[in-house]
Amino acid sequence: LVGGSGGSGVVFIKYKNKNANRTFEFTGSTIWKNDFNANEIEYLVVAGGGGGGNDNGFNVGGGAGGGAGGLRTGTLSVTNNRSYTISVGAGGDGSPSHPTNGSQGTTFDSIVSIGGGGGGSRSTQGGTSAVRNGGSGGGSGQRDSSTEVAGEAIQGDTGVSQGHDGGEGYDNGTTTASGGGGGGGAGSNGQNSFLVSPAFRGGNGGGALASDITGSTVYYAGGGGGGSHPAVTPGSGSLGGNTATPSLKGGGADGVSGSNPGVAGTDNTGGGGGAGGPVGGKGGSGIVVIKITG
Q: Distance between CA 180 and CA 203 in Å, rounded?
């Protein structure tokens, strides 16, 4: 009898891309060419935030915060030497009168984030306050003796929402004590306006989401705060991104009271604009960040 032959050997080689973990940030529209032998990337795609609403010149609050821009993260297979189109959306304009425009979307190749919904403005005619749906929905403005429906977060091509809904505006049945809802954020819904006797305080903007794709923890896509009646205690106005800590706001602007103009969301975060008196704050522009992972 003859014994069996031994098995042949094998060699495994694991190749590590020397560009692994290299990160690219884009704040404007451009082309990224994969000259780095990358097979896979991680991405963060944030759209521009919606502009804040105003109170139509009554100087008693009632405008709503703008919704944050849609936020998408994930991984994507890429092809070496292929060029990829990037378009970064601007923030929506704050409302100078009745309507408020939502913002533009942001795209990286097939990845599309939807612009944030504009915040509603105070209405005295019982009509719509031009609330818009978006990546995160804008809050609803106050309407005398009634409550309007806030903007909703739109589901994109994946069928998954890219943010949260806006909050609702309220009044106490008069024309002089109104408050607007907060814009939705990537992390949570915008807050409804609520009573801080003798008037209504604007709702806080929805919370932001954190990302460490750049190597540092940065918060993105916070909702804008709703407008408050000036009788509300000074210093207790609505908060963008549902926090008083600037680094955690995700660019969401605080709402203001009375005749003060709205505060803009922070650019390159997708934060929603804050509500104001004569004019709402502009939404923050979006951003695209990609990191080579393989």
A: 6
